[in-house]
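Support request, please re-run this one:
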Amino acid sequence: MAQKAADQVTVVDVTDAYSVILTSEAYAFPGTTSAAKAGSTTTQIIAMLGAAQVAASVVLSEITAPAGVTVTKNSDATAPTLTITVATSVTAGGNLTIPVHIGDDIVINKTFSYSIAFTGSTGTAGKGISSTAVTYQASSSGTTAPTGTWSSTVPAVTASQYLWTRTVFTYTDSSTVTAYAVGMAGATGAAGTAGKGVSSAAVTYQSGASGTTVPTGTWASSVPAVAKGSYLWTRTVTTYTDSTTSTGYSVTYVGTDGSDGADALTIAITSSQGFIFKNSSIETVLTAHVYKAGAEVTGSALTALGTIKWYKDGSTTATATGQTLTIDAGQVTSKATYTATLEG
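Re-run finished. Output below.
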């Protein structure tokens, strides 16, 4: 049986959960080249039940911390703030494990991580360029640097000679580096043949029944009316400055009207009580609305189109048929996906 249209929704059952947030879960303490500098940072503990804040508490003796790291807290009974301090004996980053109590029975362990931003050692003195000197010399060789006098201005270079450019870089430590570049002065080439340019172009048009064979009728300077299913030919005659010509063609097809397409079928699912429920309190009716060309189809017209079938969680076996599906408590565990299809 062919499927004509379909839609899909997900129904979710949400149960509140406890969560604990540290306002700061990591910190980098400033350091010397080998150890931390004495310092401290703070983080606040916030406990939540769903979207509501609840009281949280911490027992300092239960906190696991590396040597050299100490923790204190303030007197806030709902969201205490911890102060984490490092001594100069700390030479590496690490983690603290913080057990957080919520009520009498719940303990959630949170991890606070720290690192040390060590100070880098002083680098060696850099070497920069203090000056450059560019000079020039002509030579008969393009591979061996000339040994004559270098000039600060570009000399005259005859055809087939080479122009050498020498650049001397002087660095801040008084050392130097010399680089060369060389270019050849080419001889004058022979005169080229006379060029051929375009003197004019004439564009004309003609309608034809073929898209591959050039029409043999009269060409017009204006675009003619072209019937549907026929071709518009464009002829371009190019005349060059030596009086020669070339002819080029392009062709365009005028298409015929296509037949009307079939009206589209779509399905939209609605729920009488929404799609998200809390603590297993699910009770709703899903309705599959069928639309043809944007208008809803009902009654005998809907029956004539086919049968609406409901599928759950990707199953290929329908769980129910009909325009509506009732969902009660106990039918959804956490969430379920329902698909309605129009088949016939």
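The chain is about 0% helix and 50% strand. The mean pLDDT is 90.
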